[in-house]
Amino acid sequence: MRAYVFAEWKKTRKLQLFMIGMAFLIFSSFIGLGIYFANRAVLIDKTQSLVLWGQLTFYNSTLLYPPMLAIIVGQLLMPEFERKNIEMLKANQVSMDKLYFGKLLSGFFLILSVQLFLILIFVVAAKVDGISFDLSLAVHIKWLLLSVVASFPIMTLQSFVIAKTRNFSKAVGVATIGSMLNFVLIFINENLTKFFPYSQPMIALRSRSLTDMSLIDLTIFLVVNSLYSLLFYKLTVAALKKNK
Asked: What pLDDT does residue 88 have?
């Protein structure tokens, strides 16, 4: 397994994918910071850092994060379908399970590195504004790490779409539709977002509630993310094995 992980990490266009992730993060942060500072004068004391966090993460987690994940997953998987690479790999008895796990882990490290910059932007913006943290920085780091966990259901779902369609544009389109549906669910019944895969990063980052998860909510979050991740992981591997 280790050999597969190292091989996939070596093959990954790390700088290119990292820059794609950073472009999405910078764009969403620009929007969030613009809204925050435009309304800075009317904010109540002792709530500024939470409002700042909410603005930084809301547009990113609800609308831009899933398409970003779709692009990263597409860039990781699509090369295997070019020039019938995947057929050659299967002919050489390469394990599709281990191959995909290596790609998924490579994506995990890339996404983690991008998300760490979210914390950096948050801290720098808070310092520039001269505000203290309403919650400890450790809580925000926990939310960030949970957002990386919440990336797995979307990554595996998008992997399945790629494996079935071999079409990068369709996969990104599915993620974009998922983002829009998440936005709609917020206004229809926000409780439904707890069970919608494309809503999980928003829930993890607490973009709407701005409060820490209760034990029940955390349990639901972990169960939902585990089930989606396992389901679409298995479906993706099966699709990779069947591709011709």
From this structure: 80
Q: What is the pLDDT of residues 146-183, one digit of tens each?
A: 999 999 999 999 999 999 999 999 999 999 999 999 99
- Give pLDDT tens digits for 85-126: 777 877 777 788 888 999 999 999 999 999 999 999 999 999
User: Using H for helix, E for strand and C for coil, what is the string for the chain?
Assistant: CHHHHHHHHHHCCHHHHHHHHHHHHHHHHHHHHHHHHHCHHHCCCCCHHHHHHHHHHHHHHHHHHHHHHHHHHHHHHHHHHHHHHHHHHHHCCCCHHHHHHHHHHHHHHHHHHHHHHHHHHHHHHHHHHCCCCCCCHHHHHHHHHHHHHCHHHHHHHHHHHHHHHCCHHHHHHHHHHHHHHHHHHHHHCHHHHHHCHHHHHHHHHCCCCCCCCCHHHHHHHHHHHHHHHHHHHHHHHHHHHHCC
Backbone angles phi, psi at 45, to 5 degrees: -60, 150
